[in-house]
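Students often ask why inverse folding is considered easier than folding. One informal answer: many sequences map to the same fold, so there is more than one right answer. In these notes we will look at a single instance of the problem. The structure comes first.
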């Protein structure tokens, strides 16, 4: 089992991310599966009774396709195909702020240390660090910056408004 960062600590991951070409039988037999969006869309009737269940989205998939089904998922994993693709930063904020999702939002894929602080500010609370990097080292990046200027999910007031209050 791999080590991930969750809620600002290192933990052993209990979830299995199924591949994009996973079959329904695999999802039904896997404990704590994180399934691809396409599998959910094809077999929602059979999968909606599985608890707990997670889902993952690729960067080109939009969160609006999933809004009505959010209560079914304990985890929403957002896949970063390359570290320079920032589309899921917006999806995390939408999940937290517009759709009031309170479950785990997990970053998977090409996730690097330098991104974690900004991901946290957008609403992510779990991170699967790229296999060739050290999760313990990446964990330290969540506390390297102590002051933020702009408003975000984790601080709804910009610095100038916090100082004047």
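Output (designed amino acids):
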């Amino acid at each position: 089992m791999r080590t991930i960062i969750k809620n600002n600590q290192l933990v052993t991951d209990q979830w299995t991310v199924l591949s994009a070409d996973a079959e329904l039988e695999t999802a039904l037999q896997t404990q704590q599966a994180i399934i691809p969006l396409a599998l959910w869309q094809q077999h929602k009737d059979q999968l909606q009774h599985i608890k707990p269940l997670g889902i993952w989205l690729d960067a080109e998939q939009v969160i609006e396709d999933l809004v009505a089904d959010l209560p079914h998922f304990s985890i929403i994993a957002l896949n970063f195909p390359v570290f320079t693709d920032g589309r899921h930063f917006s999806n995390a904020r939408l999940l937290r702020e517009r759709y009031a999702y309170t479950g785990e939002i997990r970053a998977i894929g090409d996730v690097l240390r330098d991104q974690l602080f900004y991901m946290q500010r957008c609403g992510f609370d779990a991170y699967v660090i790229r296999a060739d990097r050290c999760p313990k080292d990446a964990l330290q990046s969540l506390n390297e910056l102590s002051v933020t200027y702009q408003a975000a999910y984790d601080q709804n007031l910009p610095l100038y408004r916090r100082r004047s209050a």
